[in-house]
Amino acid sequence: MPELQRTAARVVVFQRTPPWVIARADRAHTPREQALFRRLPAAQRLVRTGQYWSREARPRALIGGGLLRRLFERQSLRTLQRQVPDPELRAQLTPDYAIGCKRVIVSDDYLPALTRPNVELVASPVAEVRAHSVVDADGTEHEVDAIVYGTGFRVMDLPLAHRLTGREGRTLSERWAEGGAQAHRGTTVAGFPNLFLLLGPNTVLGHSSVVLMIEAQIGYVLAALGAMERAGAGALEVRRPAQDAYNAQLQAALTDTVWNAGGCRSWYRDEHGRNVTLWPTHTLTFLRQMRRFDAAFYELRTARREAVVGAR
Fold it and tell me: Which of 13, 144, 177, 279 has the greatest number of beta carbons closer than 10 A?
């Protein structure tokens, strides 16, 4: 949106729910810092490590709430107070739910862009789109010549899932339509041999970089393929009881988090109110969990499916 504000003559922003905004704090490194990083790579790694652990501290605020969450919210509200001087506009941009319940916007220019004279904030959802205008829920018509429409929020409604058919003759989308998207460690799905997912159910993060999750999953998949090769197996499939137990534990861990109980509706949860998107705790927990391929939870079959190899 800030880029649109800089290039368009007029921008109308339709807002159903105000977001929490925190500063990006993404400054350019000085020439002196760059020279230091070149001469001493350990210094750069130290900075990156500090950034990682500062993000790992956020789940304490998002999971446990209490004082840490209030401090997190207060920091965001101070940013809003500083960047939006108009009290009426600021009131429209003040969230009424716990921080983290929806995706937090990390930006230094989103709020300032909303204060510019060529930007109008409409604190009302879109009710109708006409040939040359957009009508909001209050019935006001706004003439426009282009629409920037945010999509992609049904994150587990994967187009590919309609084309993946499992061992029982049902597609992955049909299976997930029954009880929500589920996988073992967000990577393998019961009934779908040799299917490996990256960023599958409950592997997205609300506080840090998903690159960590992807790298951990790749290591897990490679270990699974190694187990297949050593056993001379042609197929590998997670056992349904193992998958069910894993997901029951996940959902229990998510119950009291801000993502489930923060007082908002978000794309983290499916139409049944089940959080099928987010990992419920620190990334370090997931990384440790994925270090070893848990072969006991899998069936390894020969290429001709005539036996189960090396599984209890």
Answer: 279
Tokens in use for 264? 């908002």
Side chain identity, residue 127: A
Domain 159-309 has CATH 3.30.70.1290: no
Are 12 and 140 within 8 A, CB to CB?
no
Question: Is the dihedral angle over the CA atoms 40, 45, 50, 55 positive or is it negative?
Answer: positive
- Tokens 């490194």 correspond to 29
pLDDT digits (tens, 9 = 90+) for 256-299: 888 888 889 889 998 888 999 999 988 999 999 999 999 999 99
Long-range contacts of 138-142, Cβ-Cβ distance < 8 Å, separation of 24 or more: 142/12
Q: Which residue spans of the chain are classified as CATH 3.50.50.60? A: 159-309
**CB 28: neighbour CB atoms within 10 A?**
7
* CA 304 to chain CA centroid, nearest Å: 39
Cα angle 277-278-281, degrees, rounded to a multiple of 5: 160
What's the CA gap between 284 and 57, in Å, rounded?
Answer: 11
Provide DSSP, 216-274: HHHHHHHHHHHHHHHHT-SEEEE-HHHHHHHHHHHHHHHTTSHHHHSSS--TTB-TTS-
CA distance 237 to 63: 32
Contact 62, 100 (CB under 8 A): yes
What the block records as the tokens of 79 is 């940013």
Q: How far is the C-alpha of 183 from the C-alpha of 156, rounded, in Å? A: 12
Nearby residues of 236 by Cβ (< 8 Å), 6 or more positions away:
188, 193, 194, 224, 227, 228, 298, 299, 300, 301
